[in-house]
Amino acid sequence: MADDNLPGGMSLRPESMLCFDIYATHHAIGQAYQPLLSEVGLTYPQYLVMIVLWDRDGQSVGDLGARLDLASSTLTPLIKRMESQGLLERKRDSSDERKVRVTLTNAGRELKQKASHVPACVARAFGLSMEEFVQLHGMLGKLRASLRNARVTGTA
Amino acid sequence: MADDNLPGGMSLRPESMLCFDIYATHHAIGQAYQPLLSEVGLTYPQYLVMIVLWDRDGQSVGDLGARLDLASSTLTPLIKRMESQGLLERKRDSSDERKVRVTLTNAGRELKQKASHVPACVARAFGLSMEEFVQLHGMLGKLRASLRNARVTGTA
DNA sequence: TGCGATTTAGTCGTGCTCGATATATACAGG
DNA sequence: CCTGTATATATCGAGCACGACTAAATCGCA
C-alpha cells in the first residue's frame, strides 16, 4: 500500500518532498557561500546583516529583524559578535531609549568592497538562466506569502 | 552609482536576492512545520530523520547523513536525543563494528500514523498548484546540482 | 602476517535559531 | 502626575549545524 494518500505522486521519501527541497537547497547555498565569506571573515547570517546595513545604515535591531525575519534573541548576540569584530557599533536611540541603532564602522563600510565579488560568484554557481531565476524568485515569494497567510488563518 | 554590476536587475537588497529567497523560505517552512510537529514531539530535523527511517529501517548513521546531507557531528547528538525519547535504538553493526545501525522502536513506527496528517497539511499551506509544485521541485534540484558541480570545480 | 591508509562515529568548541521570559522605556487615560 | 499597557531589546536554555580533531575498526598490500 502507498504510504499516504497525497496528491500527484507525492510520497514521504525526502527527496521528493518540497520541504526537503528547500531544506537541502538552503543547506547547499550555505555551503556555497561559506568559503567566499570566510575569506572576508563573515558567516552567512552576518553577511545578510551587512547587506541590510549597506543598503541603509543606522537601522534599529527591530528593523533588521523585520527585514531578515529574525528575533531579537537571535540578532542581539549576532550583532554583538559583529561589534566585537569592529564592523559596527550599537547605541541607544537618543529620542527613544528603547531602540538600539546599529551603525557601520569604517571597517564595516569598507567590507562592502572586499565582498563585492560574492554575489556574482554565487549567482554564477547557481547555473540558472535569467528566466529561471525570475520564475524561481516568483514562486518562492508566492510560497512564503501562502505560508504567512496560512499561519494567520490556521492550518486546520 | 549602482551597488554592483550584476546581471539583469539583481541588486544587493536582500529581498531581491535568491539566496535570501531560499533562506526566508526555509525559515517560513520551519515555522509552518513547527506547530504540527510539536504536537507529536518532534523537531523538524528529527522529523526528517524519521521520514528516512520510515522509508527504510536499520540504516547506519552514515546512510542517514548521505540522505539528509548532515555530518556525524550533527546526527550523533540528534539521534541520541531521539533514542532517549524512545523513538529508536542505536547498536553497532555486528559485521562491521564501525557502523551504528539505527532501528525504530514500536513507538517510532507508531509515530508514522500519528504524523500522517502533517505532509498534506503543509502541502495545503504551500498554496501552490501541482504544476508550480513540480516546476519548483525541478528548479531547486537543478540549482542544487549546479552548486554541487561548482563546489567541485571551484568558483574562481 | 602485519602495518599503514581509509572508513565510521563520536567529541568539542563556536555560532545560529527559537520560545519563554525579563527589564526598561514610552505612551495613554484618568 | 501616576498607573497600566504596549513596545524594544536582552537573557536564558535547548536544539541544530559546522569544522577540526580523536578513536576504533576495517581494508589493502607488501
UniProtKB/TrEMBL annotation, chains A, B:
<dbReference type="GO" id="GO:0003700">
    <property type="term" value="F:DNA-binding transcription factor activity"/>
</dbReference>
<dbReference type="GO" id="GO:0005737">
    <property type="term" value="C:cytoplasm"/>
</dbReference>
<keyword id="KW-0804">Transcription</keyword>
<keyword id="KW-0963">Cytoplasm</keyword>
<dbReference type="InterPro" id="IPR036390">
    <property type="entry name" value="WH_DNA-bd_sf"/>
</dbReference>
<keyword id="KW-0805">Transcription regulation</keyword>
<dbReference type="GO" id="GO:0006950">
    <property type="term" value="P:response to stress"/>
</dbReference>
<keyword id="KW-0238">DNA-binding</keyword>
<protein>
    <submittedName>
        <fullName>DNA-binding MarR family transcriptional regulator</fullName>
    </submittedName>
</protein>
<dbReference type="InterPro" id="IPR039422">
    <property type="entry name" value="MarR/SlyA-like"/>
</dbReference>
<dbReference type="InterPro" id="IPR036388">
    <property type="entry name" value="WH-like_DNA-bd_sf"/>
</dbReference>
<dbReference type="GO" id="GO:0003677">
    <property type="term" value="F:DNA binding"/>
</dbReference>
<dbReference type="InterPro" id="IPR055166">
    <property type="entry name" value="Transc_reg_Sar_Rot_HTH"/>
</dbReference>
<feature type="domain" description="HTH marR-type">
    <location>
        <begin position="15"/>
        <end position="145"/>
    </location>
</feature>
<dbReference type="InterPro" id="IPR000835">
    <property type="entry name" value="HTH_MarR-typ"/>
</dbReference>
<dbReference type="Pfam" id="PF22381">
    <property type="entry name" value="Staph_reg_Sar_Rot"/>
</dbReference>
